[in-house]
Amino acid sequence: MTESATTTMPATSTARSTRNSSIVFDNVTKTYPGQTAHALDSLSIEVRSGELVCLVGPSGGGKTTALQLVNRLVDLSSGEIRIGDTNIMDLSPIELRRTIGYAIQQSGLFPHYTVAENIATVPTILKWDRKRIEARTKELLELVGLTPVENWLKRYPGQLSGGQQQRVGIARALAADPPVMLMDEPFGALDPITRVAVQDEFLDIHRAVGKTTLFVTHDIDEAIKMADRIAILKPGGLLAQYDTPAEVLARPADDFVAEFLGAERGLKRLALTTVAEVLAAGRDRRGSSPVAAAAGSTEAGNPVSAAEWPEVSATMTLREALSLVSAAHAQGARVMDAGSHLGDVTLHELICPPADDPARTTEGARI
Amino acid sequence: MSGFAPAGDPVIPDYGQASDCVINNGFFCTDWFASQWSTVFWPPLVDHIYMVLIAVVVGFLIAFTAALIAYRKKWLAGPIGVAATFLYTLPPLALFQLLVPFTGLTLLTVEIALVCFTLVIIFQAVLAGLAAVPDDVKRSAVGMGLDTKQLMLKVELPLALPSIISGLRIATVLTVSVATIAAFVVDSGLGSPILKAVSSPFNTQFIAAGALAVLLAFVLDGLLVLIGRILTPWTRVRI
User: Fold this and answer.
1) CB within 8 Å of B227: residues ≥ 6 apart
2) Which residue has the higher pLDDT, B2 or B28?
3) What CATH number matches the domain at B37-228, 3.40.50.300, 1.10.3720.10, 2.40.50.840, 3.20.170.30?
4) pLDDT of A39-71, one tens digit each?
5) Of A14, A123, A142, B4, which residue has the fewest beta carbons closer than 10 angstroms?
6) Which chain A residues contact residue B234 at CB under 8 A?
7) From the candidates B133, B140, B142, B237, which should be mutated to test the interface with A, based on the most A CB atoms within 10 A?
8) Is the CA virtual torsion B58, B59, B61, B65 positive or negative?
9) What are phi and psi of B179, to 5 degrees?
């Protein structure tokens, strides 16, 4: 089986939840017994319905604590957490957890259960009937791209690769169709190539099912790629910044955030925009003749003429395109799609992309 | 008529025909073994099996319960472990001697002693099996909303099974062996023909009884391996 099995969306897939499933942290503090320092200090954030928020920060920043407070694996010291309109303390922990999807690093799959039995864990304890469980299991395996499903149902986790286990872990978390998902470094143990594939698939699934998702990761690049908004926690459990990836990269709230993002912050930002977006923006500015405009900007003495610029695909990020342009000593790139030439982008356009999608940048308000 | 008059023919009891092997006291006389099987060997073998099964089942029930309690109340694990180890270190003969005044020369005496020897092995095996359940598996189980009982029945015990089975295997083989000493207390089990044979110079009887005990240990061990395989199919599948 290939790691990059294509994700197909079954027609019967989980419908986008329409009711309020936001996760609200209201002045939440956690201090572990016997410790004076807070693990989490007065955290107030809202994860809106359907939003994917990444909690990032160094170890000791309290990100896993924040996650485990939501499904009450850890008990609050003070403050309040609400899911939708319900205070989590109003439900029994067992009841609460059965309404929350939970996926963790190393997948946490039950080694003595087959794939089908693993996925059916929560539906079984909720006493769904057998037919419904069977149908749901197959639907989820298709959703996570483990097809044909008959090949996977009876396998044990020990027979799966890390990436496949993680897909089953996600399917299991989604099994009872919970409105909310908690993910604790789910892809942390995967090799880089598998990780990218599973990230892409998870993003597709997230867009399809629209679960409100709180996602812990120590990998800032993963957060930039996955998150609608990023909450950066610093040691002592203080919230350093809560904003969209673009905003965090463009305007770090303080030195801690800037340092955490690293020296390549500017380059990371280029990973948020695709070549297609730059091309579209360029057309808007210059009218319908991008090639002429691009050629016009080419300076004399250019080592590589526009006709020999490297070819990039429209779906590439600016960071990837820039890498190719740099490697070719060129001043721009030819944008190709399935053999046809869509237009050119210049080095200047790659480095200074048009402003991000306004929809992404205006969502940065804190509560 | 005098009852003391010598008979016409000398009265020599007829012990039947012995084979050359028996007459020469060979190492192992197959013909004798076969002819004595149904009287000398089969009944003690059946008794031995019962003796071992009762001891292992009772020992398992006690040790398993103790291990579950110790798993919940960690502070109890130490004291229970020390008590079980103490029982394990007692010499079997001394333990029989100690019990006879209370329970007499009965099967009960034997079983109490045999159970004592199984306890520490099964107790430690169950506890080690439960302790070896991976944390991430338990965390995800709890995080998905399994309650304490479901966690134990659906996750912890099944994953502890391989360790529990290997503990049972050791306890069973040990009990088959220790149960031969039971002949000092009751005339039962494979120890009985062995004990009777050691005081006579005849080889076949104790060699055959000893070999049966070894064979029984192998068979019971094999049965447990088989049961283990059936109960833990996930441990055998690898890509």
Assistant:
1) B165
2) B28
3) 1.10.3720.10
4) 999 999 999 999 999 999 888 788 999 999 999
5) B4
6) 111-113, 156, 158
7) B140
8) positive
9) -65, -20
Directed axis angle between helix B203-231 and helix B42-72, to 10°? 40
Q: Where are the domains of chain B?
A: 37-228
Q: How far apart are CA B107 and CA B105, in angstroms?
A: 7
In chain A, pLDDT over 70 holds for what percent of residues? 86
Name the residue type at position A7. Answer: T
Distance (Å) of CA A99 to CA A173, A245, B154, B203: 10, 29, 20, 73
Look-up of token digits 């995080």? B143
Burial B46-66 (b: 16+ CB within 10 A, else e): ebbbebbebbbebbbebbbeb
Q: What is the predicted pLDDT for the residue at A282?
A: 75
What amino acid occupies position A299?
Answer: E
Q: Report the C-alpha gap between A36 and A280 in whole angstroms.
A: 54
User: Tokens representing B70?
Assistant: 């110790």
- HEC string of A37-94 equals CCCEEEEEEEECCCCEEEEECCCCCCHHHHHHHHCCCCCCCEEEEEECCEEHHHCCHH
Sorting pLDDT into bands at 50, 70 and 90, what band is A110?
very high
Least confident of A287-291, B65-69, B91-95: A287-291
Residue A12: what pLDDT? Answer: 39
User: What tens digit of pLDDT does each residue of B13-28 get?
Assistant: 666 777 888 888 888 8
The confidence score (pLDDT) of residue B222 equals 97
Nearest CB to A94; choose among B145, B232, B234:
B145
Quote the tokens at residue B204.
Answer: 């076949």
Interchain pair A73, B238: CB under 8 A: no
The token pair that represents A135 in the structure block? 């149908």
Tokens of A266: 């500017």
Answer yes or no: is pLDDT of A361 > 50. Answer: no
Q: Which residues of A touch B150 (CB under 8 A)?
A: 125
Mean pLDDT score, A168-174: 93
Sign, Cα dihedral of A290, A292, A293, A298: positive
Please give the domain boundaries of chain A with CATH numbers for all domains. 23-263 (3.40.50.300), 275-351 (3.90.1280)
Sheet holding A40-47, edge to edge: A40-47, A23-30, A78-83, A86-87
Write down the mean pLDDT value for chain B. 88
Helix, strand or coil, per DSSP, at residue A129: coil
**CA-nearest residue of chain B to A68?**
B143
